[in-house]
Amino acid sequence: MAILETPLQIGSARIRNRLYRAPVLEGAGSLPDAAKQYARQFVANARAGVGLIVQGNSCIYEEGRTSPGMTLVNTRERVLRLGEMVDAVHAEGGAVFLQIGHGGLYAMEAWHHPYAEERKGPLLAPSKLPLALRPAFLRAPVHPMTTDEVYAMATRFGEVSAWAREAGYDGVQLASGNAKLIHQFLTPFYNRRTDEFGGSVENRGRVLRVIREAIAEHAGEDYACTVKIPVDEKSPPLTPRISFDDGMELCRLAQEWGYHAVTPVRLSVLPDTTLTKGDIPASLWRNPTMKRRLREAAPSRVQWAVLMAGYVVGSVRNPFRPVWNRDVFTEAKRRLSIPVFAVGGIRTADEVNGILEGGEADMVGIGRPFYAEADLAARILGGSPEPRRCLNSNFCVPAEMLGMKGTCYNPKVKKTTGASS
Ligand SMILES: Cc1cc2nc3c(=O)[nH]c(=O)nc-3n(C[C@H](O)[C@H](O)[C@H](O)COP(=O)(O)O)c2cc1C
After folding, report:
1. pLDDT in tens for each of the 421 residues of the chain?
2. Is 92:53 a contact under the CB 8 Å cutoff?
3. Is residue 286 part of a domain?
4. Do the domain assignments include residue 153?
5. Counting atoms of ligand 1 from 1, which one is nearest the CA of 365?
6. Tally of domains in the chain
7. In angstroms, rounded to a whole number, what is the distance separating the alpha carbons of residues 199 and 187?
């Protein structure tokens, strides 16, 4: 039997096969219909055979969302309401992990005009802003978290994980990449702390340790607890960053501290398209709704230009490359005994099987193509040689920031709607 079809145990979770839907924001929000919105995508994915769905980043605090469509999981009631979707995915044989995090400096109030006006408190951060970023944060005060606040945040991660377990989720993943708050703690680009959470790689990584301890205490030691680890970061010239070796050390520490699996990924210290790679998201000027929403979100010319430049420069510097994290996950797999998740530019059944049969990773994730092909899992599991419908145009990327539904926005892509379609 191909490894792809074999089950995998991750902490308390048994996953029926090795294919997962990587977290790509769904824009489901936090209204009472959120579970239905998630179910609309996830049930079709599970029916087509996907082993695991990692739900996109959901926020542990009211004021940490990076976009208006991001789901809040800051109360037990909100998390339990999502249980209806989890049950529906289970009925199709799939498993779901809840990804949990906080935007930190990139909470939407830092850039999204209507929300910036309403924000009550400052943006949470590990330290004062790096000098180079200060001109972009003039209207948003920043609060370097105290040591006690870091421990309180870890407790909240623990509570949310306990609620997730109660709601039926099979596990959690920390949203610890993509320049969000935990990533900001991990990288020396943002973290200049002098307490036990700053300094060496181990000290910067300690935030993962206290969160892991809180999750074990609140949700149970065995509850599947997984983490994304930034490796070989891109940062502006002459600024500190997580190197390849630092990233591998963080992976080792995550294993030592009891995480059940890691997803090592190449990232930038800025929230640009390094994490997705692909084309310039031309939807920003071709899609009238996105164009209008961007104007509303960033009404000043300077703000608009900074965001546009981020998208354009990020994409020019990061053209699509198939399986671009291969050396990163292969090396983590070589060094660790816990499961390693692969993600980044993986598209074909041959690539998926090659990674698994070569012993390069234990789970293989695909992100954007799920927006275009709800039944993608059936094609990968069936070994279909058909190319993916996703064109890596990144038309979907601005939608998540602008609070729109997570789906494929490229008019040239013919979407499938479900396993039975
Ligand atoms: C619109 C969009 C939203 C994303 N949201 C998340 C997220 O919430 N959490 C996360 O860890 N990664 C997120 N990612 C990154 C994906 O999980 C994945 O790593 C990336 O898209 C590369 O994989 P792919 O080439 O298969 O799309 C997002 C990517 C896109 C395009």
Report:
1. 899 999 999 999 999 999 999 999 999 999 999 999 999 999 999 999 999 999 999 999 999 999 999 999 999 999 999 999 999 999 999 999 999 999 999 999 888 888 887 777 899 999 999 988 888 887 788 999 999 999 999 999 999 999 999 999 999 999 999 999 999 999 999 999 999 999 999 999 999 999 999 999 999 999 999 999 999 999 999 999 999 999 999 999 999 999 999 999 999 999 888 889 999 999 999 999 999 999 999 988 888 988 898 899 889 999 999 999 999 999 999 999 999 999 999 999 999 999 999 999 999 999 999 999 999 999 999 999 999 999 999 999 999 889 999 999 999 998 886 544 3
2. no
3. no
4. yes
5. 26
6. 1
7. 10
In a domain, 108, yes or no: yes
Residues counted in the chain: 421
Specify the CATH number for the domain of residue 223.
3.20.20.70
Atom of ligand 1 nearest to the CA of 368: 27
Hey, how many other C-beta atoms are within 10 angstroms of the C-beta on 213? 18
Say if 212 falls within a structural domain: yes
Give pairs for 412-416: CB < 8 Å, separation 24+: 413/372, 413/389, 414/389, 415/371, 415/372, 415/373, 415/374, 415/389, 416/372, 416/373, 416/374, 416/375, 416/389
The Cα 121–Cα 338 span in angstroms is 39
Token pair, residue 31, equals 């209204």
Residue nearest to atom 6 of ligand 1 (CA): 24
The CA distance from 375 to 64, in Å, is: 33
Nearest to 42 by CA among 215, 170, 226, 177: 170
Pocket residues: Cβ below 6 A from ligand 1: 22-25, 56-57, 99, 175, 177-178, 228, 275-276, 343-346, 366-368, 396-397, 400
Ligand 1 atom closest to Cα of residue 173: 11
Best residue for ligand 1 mutational test, from 24, 71, 277, 279 (most atoms within 8 Å of Cβ): 24
Cα of 56 from ligand 1 centre, angstroms: 8
Among protein residues, the one with the nearest Cα to ligand 1's atom 1 is 397
C-alpha of residue 321 to centroid of ligand 1, in Å? 15
Q: pTM above the 0.85 mark?
A: yes
Q: How far is the CA of 66 from the centre of ligand 1 (A)?
A: 14
Q: How far apart are CA 235 and CA 242, in angstroms?
A: 9
Nearest CA to ligand 1 atom 22: 344
Q: Which domain holds residue 353?
A: 3-274+321-401
